[in-house]
Protein backbone atom coordinates (compact mmCIF):
# COMPACT_ATOMS: atom_id res chain seq x y z
CA UNK A 1 0.00 0.00 0.00
CA UNK A 2 2.80 2.34 1.01
CA UNK A 3 4.64 1.65 -2.22
CA UNK A 4 1.67 2.32 -4.52
CA UNK A 5 1.09 5.60 -2.72
CA UNK A 6 4.71 6.60 -3.30
CA UNK A 7 4.55 5.67 -6.95
CA UNK A 8 1.35 7.68 -7.34
CA UNK A 9 3.04 10.71 -5.84
CA UNK A 10 6.14 10.09 -7.93
CA UNK A 11 4.04 9.96 -11.10
CA UNK A 12 2.27 13.21 -10.17
CA UNK A 13 5.65 14.89 -9.71
CA UNK A 14 6.91 13.53 -13.04
CA UNK A 15 3.78 14.79 -14.83
CA UNK A 16 3.99 18.21 -13.16
CA UNK A 17 7.66 18.43 -14.10
CA UNK A 18 6.93 17.73 -17.76
CA UNK A 19 4.33 20.54 -17.72
CA UNK A 20 7.04 22.96 -16.61
CA UNK A 21 10.19 21.96 -18.46
CA UNK A 22 10.75 23.50 -21.89
CA UNK A 23 8.73 21.58 -24.52
CA UNK A 24 11.64 22.28 -26.87
CA UNK A 25 13.59 19.51 -25.07
CA UNK A 26 10.74 17.12 -24.38
CA UNK A 27 12.46 14.03 -25.79
CA UNK A 28 15.73 14.66 -23.98
CA UNK A 29 13.87 15.35 -20.73
CA UNK A 30 11.84 12.18 -21.13
CA UNK A 31 15.01 10.08 -21.44
CA UNK A 32 16.41 11.61 -18.24
CA UNK A 33 13.12 11.15 -16.45
CA UNK A 34 13.02 7.45 -17.33
CA UNK A 35 16.57 7.04 -16.01
CA UNK A 36 15.60 8.71 -12.74
CA UNK A 37 12.36 6.76 -12.33
CA UNK A 38 12.58 3.56 -14.43
CA UNK A 39 9.71 2.11 -12.38
CA UNK A 40 7.37 4.63 -14.03
CA UNK A 41 8.35 3.77 -17.62
CA UNK A 42 4.99 2.33 -18.75
CA UNK A 43 2.92 5.07 -17.14
CA UNK A 44 5.11 7.86 -18.48
CA UNK A 45 5.23 6.50 -22.02
CA UNK A 46 1.46 6.21 -22.15
CA UNK A 47 0.61 9.51 -20.45
CA UNK A 48 3.15 11.99 -21.83
CA UNK A 49 2.66 12.88 -25.48
CA UNK A 50 5.86 13.12 -27.44
CA UNK A 51 6.52 14.46 -30.93
CA UNK A 52 5.26 11.96 -33.51
CA UNK A 53 7.80 9.89 -35.39
CA UNK A 54 7.52 8.56 -38.92
CA UNK A 55 8.15 4.98 -40.03
CA UNK A 56 7.96 3.50 -43.46
CA UNK A 57 5.63 0.64 -44.44
CA UNK A 58 7.82 -1.04 -47.04
CA UNK A 59 5.01 -3.31 -48.19
CA UNK A 60 2.55 -0.51 -48.92
CA UNK A 61 5.14 2.05 -49.90
CA UNK A 62 3.57 4.56 -47.48
CA UNK A 63 4.82 6.24 -44.34
CA UNK A 64 2.94 5.91 -41.06
CA UNK A 65 3.07 7.55 -37.66
CA UNK A 66 4.07 5.71 -34.54
CA UNK A 67 2.96 6.05 -30.93
CA UNK A 68 2.33 3.91 -27.89
CA UNK A 69 -0.99 2.71 -29.40
CA UNK A 70 0.54 0.82 -32.32
CA UNK A 71 3.62 -0.41 -30.49
CA UNK A 72 4.38 -4.00 -29.54
CA UNK A 73 7.84 -4.38 -28.07
CA UNK A 74 10.15 -2.49 -30.43
CA UNK A 75 7.91 -2.92 -33.48
CA UNK A 76 5.12 -0.70 -34.78
CA UNK A 77 2.03 -1.77 -36.70
CA UNK A 78 1.30 -0.01 -39.96
CA UNK A 79 -2.33 1.06 -40.50
CA UNK A 80 -1.94 0.48 -44.26
CA UNK A 81 -1.07 -3.25 -44.23
CA UNK A 82 -1.68 -4.23 -40.59
CA UNK A 83 1.92 -5.55 -40.55
CA UNK A 84 4.58 -4.81 -37.96
CA UNK A 85 7.86 -3.03 -38.76
CA UNK A 86 10.40 -4.39 -37.96
CA UNK A 87 8.49 -7.65 -38.62
CA UNK A 88 6.95 -9.36 -35.62
CA UNK A 89 5.35 -12.80 -35.98
CA UNK A 90 3.02 -12.70 -33.03
CA UNK A 91 2.37 -8.95 -32.79
CA UNK A 92 -0.97 -7.91 -31.27
CA UNK A 93 -3.57 -7.29 -34.00
CA UNK A 94 -6.85 -5.40 -33.70
CA UNK A 95 -10.16 -7.29 -33.72
CA UNK A 96 -12.00 -7.63 -37.05
CA UNK A 97 -14.41 -4.87 -36.10
CA UNK A 98 -11.60 -2.53 -35.04
CA UNK A 99 -9.61 -3.30 -38.19
CA UNK A 100 -12.58 -2.59 -40.47
CA UNK A 101 -13.16 0.76 -38.80
CA UNK A 102 -9.45 1.45 -38.97
CA UNK A 103 -9.36 0.92 -42.75
CA UNK A 104 -12.26 3.31 -43.36
CA UNK A 105 -10.88 5.87 -40.92
CA UNK A 106 -7.40 5.83 -42.41
CA UNK A 107 -8.73 6.50 -45.90
CA UNK A 108 -11.06 9.25 -44.66
CA UNK A 109 -8.38 10.98 -42.59
CA UNK A 110 -5.95 10.73 -45.48
CA UNK A 111 -8.40 12.91 -47.43
CA UNK A 112 -8.90 15.18 -44.40
CA UNK A 113 -5.13 15.63 -44.05
CA UNK A 114 -4.74 16.36 -47.75
CA UNK A 115 -7.41 19.07 -47.61
CA UNK A 116 -6.25 20.78 -44.40
CA UNK A 117 -2.52 20.11 -44.28
CA UNK A 118 -1.48 19.90 -47.92
CA UNK A 119 1.21 17.31 -47.48
CA UNK A 120 0.95 16.01 -43.93
CA UNK A 121 0.92 12.37 -42.83
CA UNK A 122 -1.93 10.72 -40.94
CA UNK A 123 -2.46 7.37 -39.20
CA UNK A 124 -5.48 6.05 -37.33
CA UNK A 125 -5.43 3.11 -34.92
CA UNK A 126 -8.47 1.35 -33.43
CA UNK A 127 -8.48 -1.15 -30.60
CA UNK A 128 -11.25 -3.10 -28.92
CA UNK A 129 -11.31 -4.38 -25.35
CA UNK A 130 -13.83 -6.67 -23.65
CA UNK A 131 -16.25 -3.84 -23.19
CA UNK A 132 -14.56 -0.92 -24.88
CA UNK A 133 -13.69 0.58 -28.22
CA UNK A 134 -11.18 3.36 -28.77
CA UNK A 135 -9.05 4.95 -31.43
CA UNK A 136 -6.14 7.32 -31.89
CA UNK A 137 -5.88 9.70 -34.84
CA UNK A 138 -2.40 11.06 -35.50
CA UNK A 139 -1.48 13.80 -37.95
CA UNK A 140 1.93 15.32 -38.58
CA UNK A 141 3.07 18.15 -40.81
CA UNK A 142 6.60 19.49 -41.00
CA UNK A 143 7.55 22.71 -42.71
CA UNK A 144 11.26 23.02 -43.40
CA UNK A 145 10.81 25.08 -46.52
CA UNK A 146 11.74 28.55 -45.36
CA UNK A 147 15.22 29.68 -44.37
CA UNK A 148 13.63 32.22 -42.13
CA UNK A 149 11.55 29.86 -40.03
CA UNK A 150 10.75 26.21 -39.52
CA UNK A 151 7.71 24.61 -37.99
CA UNK A 152 6.14 21.28 -37.10
CA UNK A 153 2.57 20.42 -36.16
CA UNK A 154 1.55 17.17 -34.41
CA UNK A 155 -2.08 16.33 -33.66
CA UNK A 156 -2.86 13.45 -31.31
CA UNK A 157 -6.55 12.65 -30.85
CA UNK A 158 -7.60 9.82 -28.58
CA UNK A 159 -11.28 8.84 -28.67
CA UNK A 160 -13.06 6.57 -26.19
CA UNK A 161 -16.21 5.19 -27.78
CA UNK A 162 -19.17 3.95 -25.80
CA UNK A 163 -21.83 2.25 -27.91
CA UNK A 164 -25.40 2.68 -26.64
CA UNK A 165 -27.64 0.94 -29.17
CA UNK A 166 -28.33 3.35 -32.02
CA UNK A 167 -26.27 6.06 -30.35
CA UNK A 168 -22.65 6.33 -29.38
CA UNK A 169 -20.93 8.51 -26.83
CA UNK A 170 -17.47 9.85 -27.73
CA UNK A 171 -14.88 11.22 -25.35
CA UNK A 172 -12.15 13.04 -27.25
CA UNK A 173 -8.80 14.10 -25.80
CA UNK A 174 -6.73 16.20 -28.17
CA UNK A 175 -3.13 17.30 -27.85
CA UNK A 176 -1.66 19.58 -30.46
CA UNK A 177 2.07 20.16 -30.40
CA UNK A 178 3.45 23.05 -32.38
CA UNK A 179 7.15 23.72 -32.74
CA UNK A 180 8.55 26.81 -34.41
CA UNK A 181 12.06 28.12 -34.84
CA UNK A 182 12.91 31.44 -36.42
CA UNK A 183 16.15 33.30 -36.83
CA UNK A 184 15.56 36.38 -38.89
CA UNK A 185 16.86 39.85 -38.14
CA UNK A 186 18.42 40.84 -34.83
CA UNK A 187 16.68 38.12 -32.88
CA UNK A 188 19.37 35.43 -32.71
CA UNK A 189 17.50 32.22 -32.10
CA UNK A 190 13.80 32.37 -31.29
CA UNK A 191 12.05 29.15 -30.35
CA UNK A 192 8.32 29.22 -29.70
CA UNK A 193 7.01 25.73 -29.00
CA UNK A 194 4.71 23.67 -26.87
CA UNK A 195 1.42 21.87 -26.67
CA UNK A 196 -2.19 22.58 -25.85
CA UNK A 197 -4.60 19.92 -24.62
CA UNK A 198 -8.37 19.85 -24.63
CA UNK A 199 -11.05 17.32 -23.77
CA UNK A 200 -14.66 17.21 -24.98
CA UNK A 201 -17.56 14.76 -25.11
CA UNK A 202 -20.30 14.33 -27.66
CA UNK A 203 -23.01 11.89 -28.82
CA UNK A 204 -23.61 10.68 -32.37
CA UNK A 205 -26.09 8.44 -34.21
CA UNK A 206 -25.10 4.96 -35.36
CA UNK A 207 -26.66 4.07 -38.70
CA UNK A 208 -24.17 1.87 -40.46
CA UNK A 209 -20.62 0.55 -40.41
CA UNK A 210 -19.08 3.90 -41.23
CA UNK A 211 -21.05 5.96 -38.67
CA UNK A 212 -18.24 5.97 -36.09
CA UNK A 213 -15.83 7.38 -38.64
CA UNK A 214 -18.35 10.05 -39.71
CA UNK A 215 -19.06 11.08 -36.09
CA UNK A 216 -15.42 11.03 -35.03
CA UNK A 217 -14.37 12.84 -38.20
CA UNK A 218 -16.75 15.73 -37.52
CA UNK A 219 -15.75 15.82 -33.87
CA UNK A 220 -12.02 15.93 -34.68
CA UNK A 221 -12.55 18.55 -37.38
CA UNK A 222 -14.42 20.82 -34.94
CA UNK A 223 -11.84 20.26 -32.22
CA UNK A 224 -8.92 21.08 -34.50
CA UNK A 225 -10.70 24.21 -35.67
CA UNK A 226 -11.11 25.40 -32.06
CA UNK A 227 -7.61 24.44 -30.97
CA UNK A 228 -6.08 26.06 -34.03
CA UNK A 229 -7.79 29.25 -32.89
CA UNK A 230 -6.45 28.82 -29.35
CA UNK A 231 -2.95 28.23 -30.67
CA UNK A 232 -3.15 31.36 -32.80
CA UNK A 233 -4.31 33.27 -29.73
CA UNK A 234 -1.83 31.84 -27.19
CA UNK A 235 1.30 31.50 -29.29
CA UNK A 236 1.13 34.61 -31.43
CA UNK A 237 -1.06 36.80 -29.23
CA UNK A 238 -0.55 36.19 -25.52
CA UNK A 239 3.14 35.34 -25.41
CA UNK A 240 3.87 38.29 -27.71
CA UNK A 241 1.97 40.62 -25.38
CA UNK A 242 3.99 39.30 -22.43
CA UNK A 243 7.27 40.01 -24.24
CA UNK A 244 6.19 43.60 -24.81
CA UNK A 245 4.95 43.83 -21.25
CA UNK A 246 8.36 42.80 -19.88
CA UNK A 247 10.10 45.47 -21.90
CA UNK A 248 8.46 48.53 -23.34
CA UNK A 249 9.94 49.91 -26.57
CA UNK A 250 8.55 53.35 -25.79
CA UNK A 251 9.99 55.00 -22.70
CA UNK A 252 7.74 55.67 -19.72
CA UNK A 253 8.44 59.41 -20.06
CA UNK A 254 7.07 59.34 -23.60
CA UNK A 255 4.08 57.23 -22.60
CA UNK A 256 3.36 59.69 -19.78
CA UNK A 257 3.62 62.65 -22.17
CA UNK A 258 1.28 61.02 -24.66
CA UNK A 259 -1.22 60.47 -21.89
CA UNK A 260 -0.99 64.12 -20.84
CA UNK A 261 -1.51 65.31 -24.40
CA UNK A 262 -4.50 63.01 -24.75
CA UNK A 263 -5.89 64.31 -21.45
CA UNK A 264 -5.44 67.91 -22.57
CA UNK A 265 -7.12 67.25 -25.90
CA UNK A 266 -9.96 65.56 -24.12
CA UNK A 267 -10.55 68.42 -21.70
CA UNK A 268 -10.34 70.95 -24.55
CA UNK A 269 -12.95 68.99 -26.47
CA UNK A 270 -15.17 68.88 -23.42
CA UNK A 271 -14.68 72.62 -22.86
CA UNK A 272 -16.03 73.29 -26.33
CA UNK A 273 -19.33 71.55 -25.79
CA UNK B 1 21.70 -0.83 -14.71
CA UNK B 2 19.78 1.42 -12.39
CA UNK B 3 21.49 4.66 -11.41
CA UNK B 4 22.58 5.30 -7.83
CA UNK B 5 20.60 7.84 -5.83
CA UNK B 6 23.39 10.41 -6.20
CA UNK B 7 23.50 9.93 -9.96
CA UNK B 8 19.73 10.32 -10.10
CA UNK B 9 19.90 13.53 -8.13
CA UNK B 10 22.60 14.90 -10.43
CA UNK B 11 20.40 14.14 -13.46
CA UNK B 12 17.30 15.59 -11.84
CA UNK B 13 19.19 18.66 -10.65
CA UNK B 14 20.01 19.47 -14.26
CA UNK B 15 16.26 20.06 -14.73
CA UNK B 16 16.51 22.98 -12.31
CA UNK B 17 18.57 24.91 -14.84
CA UNK B 18 15.77 24.85 -17.36
CA UNK B 19 13.01 25.72 -14.90
CA UNK B 20 10.74 28.46 -16.27
CA UNK B 21 10.73 31.95 -14.71
CA UNK B 22 9.62 31.87 -11.09
CA UNK B 23 9.18 28.11 -11.02
CA UNK B 24 12.44 26.89 -9.44
CA UNK B 25 10.56 25.98 -6.25
CA UNK B 26 7.99 23.93 -8.15
CA UNK B 27 10.65 22.12 -10.15
CA UNK B 28 12.58 21.51 -6.92
CA UNK B 29 9.50 20.01 -5.26
CA UNK B 30 8.91 17.76 -8.27
CA UNK B 31 12.52 16.55 -8.09
CA UNK B 32 12.09 15.97 -4.36
CA UNK B 33 9.02 13.81 -4.99
CA UNK B 34 10.74 11.98 -7.82
CA UNK B 35 13.97 10.96 -6.08
CA UNK B 36 12.27 10.48 -2.71
CA UNK B 37 15.37 10.80 -0.53
CA UNK B 38 15.46 14.10 1.37
CA UNK B 39 18.73 13.40 3.16
CA UNK B 40 20.85 12.85 0.07
CA UNK B 41 18.92 15.55 -1.80
CA UNK B 42 19.84 18.14 0.85
CA UNK B 43 23.49 17.15 0.66
CA UNK B 44 23.69 17.30 -3.12
CA UNK B 45 21.30 19.97 -4.33
CA UNK B 46 22.83 23.13 -2.81
CA UNK B 47 25.41 23.78 -5.51
CA UNK B 48 22.86 23.26 -8.29
CA UNK B 49 20.43 25.68 -6.66
CA UNK B 50 23.23 28.22 -6.28
CA UNK B 51 24.00 27.98 -10.01
CA UNK B 52 20.32 28.43 -10.89
CA UNK B 53 19.80 31.38 -8.62
CA UNK B 54 22.82 33.13 -10.09
CA UNK B 55 21.91 32.23 -13.67
CA UNK B 56 18.46 33.76 -13.16
CA UNK B 57 19.72 36.84 -11.22
CA UNK B 58 17.68 35.90 -8.17
CA UNK B 59 17.01 39.11 -6.23
CA UNK B 60 17.03 39.39 -2.44
CA UNK B 61 16.36 42.09 0.11
CA UNK B 62 18.96 42.65 2.80
CA UNK B 63 17.40 43.04 6.26
CA UNK B 64 16.39 46.64 6.99
CA UNK B 65 17.01 47.88 3.45
CA UNK B 66 14.65 48.71 0.62
CA UNK B 67 16.96 47.98 -2.27
CA UNK B 68 17.25 44.63 -3.95
CA UNK B 69 20.52 42.79 -4.47
CA UNK B 70 20.92 40.52 -7.49
CA UNK B 71 22.74 37.24 -7.04
CA UNK B 72 25.14 36.91 -9.95
CA UNK B 73 28.58 35.53 -10.77
CA UNK B 74 29.84 39.12 -10.86
CA UNK B 75 29.23 40.04 -7.23
CA UNK B 76 30.18 36.73 -5.70
CA UNK B 77 33.48 36.38 -3.83
CA UNK B 78 35.74 33.34 -4.05
CA UNK B 79 34.26 32.22 -0.71
CA UNK B 80 30.78 32.16 -2.23
CA UNK B 81 29.55 35.29 -0.42
CA UNK B 82 27.76 38.11 -2.24
CA UNK B 83 28.62 41.82 -2.26
CA UNK B 84 26.03 44.58 -2.41
CA UNK B 85 27.74 47.58 -3.97
CA UNK B 86 24.84 49.90 -3.08
CA UNK B 87 24.87 49.46 0.70
CA UNK B 88 28.50 48.25 0.66
CA UNK B 89 27.69 45.09 2.56
CA UNK B 90 28.70 41.48 2.19
CA UNK B 91 26.44 38.54 3.07
CA UNK B 92 25.97 34.80 2.89
CA UNK B 93 23.02 33.21 1.14
CA UNK B 94 21.41 29.86 1.88
CA UNK B 95 20.23 28.72 -1.55
CA UNK B 96 18.05 25.91 -0.21
CA UNK B 97 16.12 28.04 2.28
CA UNK B 98 16.51 31.28 0.28
CA UNK B 99 17.77 33.15 3.35
CA UNK B 100 20.24 36.01 3.70
CA UNK B 101 22.58 35.61 6.70
CA UNK B 102 25.70 37.13 8.21
CA UNK B 103 25.39 40.61 6.69
CA UNK B 104 28.53 42.68 7.43
CA UNK B 105 29.88 46.06 6.50
CA UNK B 106 32.29 45.74 3.57
CA UNK B 107 32.96 49.38 2.78
CA UNK B 108 36.66 49.14 3.60
CA UNK B 109 37.14 46.53 0.89
CA UNK B 110 35.17 48.29 -1.87
CA UNK B 111 37.24 50.83 -3.75
CA UNK B 112 35.78 54.22 -4.59
CA UNK B 113 34.58 53.98 -8.18
CA UNK B 114 32.78 57.05 -9.48
CA UNK B 115 32.35 55.53 -12.97
CA UNK B 116 30.53 52.52 -11.56
CA UNK B 117 28.29 54.89 -9.59
CA UNK B 118 27.53 56.87 -12.77
CA UNK B 119 26.73 53.67 -14.66
CA UNK B 120 24.50 52.48 -11.82
CA UNK B 121 22.59 55.78 -11.84
CA UNK B 122 22.10 55.52 -15.62
CA UNK B 123 21.10 51.86 -15.31
CA UNK B 124 18.36 52.75 -12.84
CA UNK B 125 17.09 55.52 -15.07
CA UNK B 126 17.11 53.20 -18.07
CA UNK B 127 15.27 50.40 -16.27
CA UNK B 128 12.59 52.75 -14.96
CA UNK B 129 11.97 53.90 -18.56
CA UNK B 130 11.82 50.50 -20.25
CA UNK B 131 11.36 47.77 -17.65
CA UNK B 132 8.51 48.58 -15.26
CA UNK B 133 9.27 46.63 -12.10
CA UNK B 134 12.70 45.52 -13.35
CA UNK B 135 16.10 45.73 -11.66
CA UNK B 136 19.59 46.64 -12.85
CA UNK B 137 22.95 46.39 -11.12
CA UNK B 138 26.40 47.41 -12.27
CA UNK B 139 29.42 45.47 -11.05
CA UNK B 140 33.13 46.19 -11.39
CA UNK B 141 34.86 43.29 -13.15
CA UNK B 142 38.67 43.28 -13.34
CA UNK B 143 38.85 46.87 -14.50
CA UNK B 144 35.82 46.40 -16.75
CA UNK B 145 32.11 46.69 -15.95
CA UNK B 146 29.12 44.36 -16.09
CA UNK B 147 25.51 45.51 -16.20
CA UNK B 148 22.88 42.94 -15.20
CA UNK B 149 19.27 43.73 -16.08
CA UNK B 150 16.34 41.56 -15.09
CA UNK B 151 12.59 41.86 -15.28
CA UNK B 152 10.39 39.04 -14.05
CA UNK B 153 6.63 39.09 -14.28
CA UNK B 154 4.59 36.34 -12.69
CA UNK B 155 0.89 36.00 -13.33
CA UNK B 156 -0.16 32.58 -12.04
CA UNK B 157 -3.84 33.61 -12.05
CA UNK B 158 -3.51 34.01 -15.84
CA UNK B 159 -1.25 30.96 -16.16
CA UNK B 160 1.92 32.68 -17.30
CA UNK B 161 5.36 33.67 -16.10
CA UNK B 162 7.93 35.68 -18.02
CA UNK B 163 11.52 36.83 -17.75
CA UNK B 164 13.65 39.28 -19.72
CA UNK B 165 17.30 39.18 -18.79
CA UNK B 166 20.39 40.83 -20.22
CA UNK B 167 24.04 41.00 -19.34
CA UNK B 168 26.15 43.79 -20.83
CA UNK B 169 29.92 43.95 -20.52
CA UNK B 170 31.87 47.08 -21.17
CA UNK B 171 35.56 46.51 -21.84
CA UNK B 172 37.36 49.71 -20.84
CA UNK B 173 40.54 48.90 -22.78
CA UNK B 174 38.90 48.07 -26.14
CA UNK B 175 35.72 50.17 -25.80
CA UNK B 176 33.72 47.10 -26.79
CA UNK B 177 30.20 46.73 -25.46
CA UNK B 178 29.00 43.12 -25.65
CA UNK B 179 25.71 41.73 -24.51
CA UNK B 180 23.70 38.57 -24.15
CA UNK B 181 19.94 38.73 -23.98
CA UNK B 182 17.55 36.02 -22.93
CA UNK B 183 13.78 36.03 -22.94
CA UNK B 184 11.77 33.14 -21.51
CA UNK B 185 8.02 32.91 -21.30
CA UNK B 186 5.95 30.05 -19.96
CA UNK B 187 2.23 29.90 -20.73
CA UNK B 188 0.49 26.95 -19.08
CA UNK B 189 -3.29 27.11 -19.28
CA UNK B 190 -4.32 23.66 -20.63
CA UNK B 191 -0.84 23.03 -21.91
CA UNK B 192 2.78 24.07 -21.86
CA UNK B 193 3.90 26.70 -24.35
CA UNK B 194 7.28 28.37 -24.03
CA UNK B 195 9.16 31.10 -25.82
CA UNK B 196 12.94 31.00 -25.64
CA UNK B 197 15.01 33.74 -27.24
CA UNK B 198 18.78 33.94 -26.97
CA UNK B 199 20.98 36.47 -28.64
CA UNK B 200 24.45 37.93 -28.35
CA UNK B 201 25.72 41.10 -29.90
CA UNK B 202 28.54 43.58 -29.59
CA UNK B 203 29.41 47.07 -30.65
CA UNK B 204 32.53 49.16 -30.52
CA UNK B 205 31.96 52.50 -28.84
CA UNK B 206 33.56 55.85 -29.62
CA UNK B 207 35.86 56.73 -26.71
CA UNK B 208 34.58 59.44 -24.39
CA UNK B 209 36.51 61.04 -21.53
CA UNK B 210 33.75 62.40 -19.38
CA UNK B 211 32.38 59.62 -17.14
CA UNK B 212 28.85 60.92 -17.14
CA UNK B 213 28.75 61.37 -20.91
CA UNK B 214 30.21 57.89 -21.40
CA UNK B 215 27.64 56.34 -19.04
CA UNK B 216 24.80 58.03 -20.90
CA UNK B 217 26.27 56.94 -24.22
CA UNK B 218 26.59 53.31 -23.09
CA UNK B 219 22.93 53.20 -22.14
CA UNK B 220 21.90 54.90 -25.36
CA UNK B 221 23.63 52.08 -27.26
CA UNK B 222 22.17 49.42 -24.94
CA UNK B 223 18.72 50.89 -25.61
CA UNK B 224 19.27 50.82 -29.38
CA UNK B 225 20.50 47.23 -29.42
CA UNK B 226 17.75 45.98 -27.14
CA UNK B 227 15.13 47.86 -29.12
CA UNK B 228 16.33 46.31 -32.40
CA UNK B 229 16.15 42.90 -30.87
CA UNK B 230 12.67 43.49 -29.48
CA UNK B 231 11.43 44.72 -32.85
CA UNK B 232 12.93 41.61 -34.45
CA UNK B 233 11.04 39.41 -32.01
CA UNK B 234 7.82 41.18 -32.92
CA UNK B 235 8.51 40.84 -36.64
CA UNK B 236 9.26 37.15 -36.22
CA UNK B 237 5.97 36.74 -34.38
CA UNK B 238 4.12 38.27 -37.30
CA UNK B 239 5.99 36.13 -39.83
CA UNK B 240 5.31 32.94 -37.87
CA UNK B 241 1.65 33.77 -37.54
CA UNK B 242 1.14 34.92 -41.15
CA UNK B 243 3.29 32.34 -42.91
CA UNK B 244 4.79 29.42 -40.99
CA UNK B 245 1.62 28.68 -39.04
CA UNK B 246 -0.70 29.02 -42.03
CA UNK B 247 1.49 26.69 -44.08
CA UNK B 248 1.31 24.00 -41.43
CA UNK B 249 -2.46 23.77 -41.17
CA UNK B 250 -5.10 25.71 -43.04
CA UNK B 251 -8.00 27.28 -41.17
CA UNK B 252 -10.39 25.96 -43.80
CA UNK B 253 -9.77 23.07 -46.20
CA UNK B 254 -8.69 23.66 -49.80
CA UNK B 255 -12.36 23.39 -50.81
CA UNK B 256 -13.21 26.35 -48.48
CA UNK B 257 -16.02 24.44 -46.83
CA UNK B 258 -16.09 21.89 -44.03
CA UNK B 259 -15.57 18.28 -44.93
CA UNK B 260 -18.52 16.11 -45.96
CA UNK B 261 -17.68 13.14 -43.74
CA UNK B 262 -20.67 11.11 -44.90
CA UNK B 263 -19.33 11.36 -48.40
CA UNK B 264 -15.65 10.66 -47.73
CA UNK B 265 -16.29 7.80 -45.28
CA UNK B 266 -18.68 6.07 -47.69
CA UNK B 267 -16.81 6.93 -50.85
CA UNK B 268 -13.84 5.16 -49.41
CA UNK B 269 -15.85 2.10 -48.47
CA UNK B 270 -16.94 1.78 -52.07
CA UNK B 271 -13.42 2.35 -53.27
CA UNK B 272 -11.47 0.10 -50.99
CA UNK B 273 -13.80 -2.13 -49.06
CA UNK B 274 -16.43 -3.14 -51.55
CA UNK B 275 -16.49 -6.66 -50.22
CA UNK B 276 -16.38 -5.97 -46.50
CA UNK B 277 -19.64 -6.80 -44.71
CA UNK B 278 -20.67 -4.96 -41.56
In one word, what is the shape of chain A?
Answer: elongated
- The total count of strands of chain B amounts to 10
- For the record, what is the CATH homologous superfamily label of the largest domain in chain B? F-actin capping protein, beta subunit
CATH class annotation of the largest domain in chain B: Alpha Beta
Strand neighbour order, sheet with most strands of chain B: 6-7-8-9-10
What's the total helix number of chain A? 6
Description of the structure:
Chain A: Keywords: Actin capping, Actin-binding, Cytoplasm, Cytoskeleton. Chain A: Heterodimer of an alpha and a beta subunit. Chain A: Its main location: cytoplasm. The complex is a heterodimer of chains A (273) and B (278). Chain A is of the alpha+beta class and 273 residues long. Chain A contains six helices and ten strands; from the N terminus they run αααβββββαβββββαα. Chain B has 278 residues and is an alpha+beta fold. Chain B has two domains: 105 residues, 2-Layer Sandwich (Ribosomal protein S3 C-terminal domain); 134 residues, Alpha-Beta Complex (Aspartate Aminotransferase, domain 1). Chain B contains six helices and ten strands, in the order αααβββββαβββββαα. The chains are: A alpha+beta (273), B alpha+beta (278). At the A-B interface, helix 1, helix 2, helix 4, strand 8 and strand 9 of A face helix 1, helix 2, helix 4, strand 8 and strand 9 of B.
SSE arrangement:
The complex is a heterodimer of chains A (273) and B (278).
Chain A: H1 2-20, H2 26-36, H3 41-47, E1 53-57, E2 62-66, E3 71-72, E4 75-77, E5 84-85, H4 96-117, E6 121-128, E7 133-143, E8 149-164, E9 167-182, E10 189-205, H5 211-246, H6 252-272
Chain B: H1 5-17, H2 24-35, H3 38-55, E1 59-61, E2 68-70, E3 82-84, E4 89-94, E5 99-105, H4 114-130, E6 135-141, E7 144-155, E8 160-171, E9 176-187, E10 191-204, H5 211-248, H6 261-272
Antiparallel strand pairs in B: 1-2, 3-4, 4-5, 6-7, 7-8, 8-9, 9-10
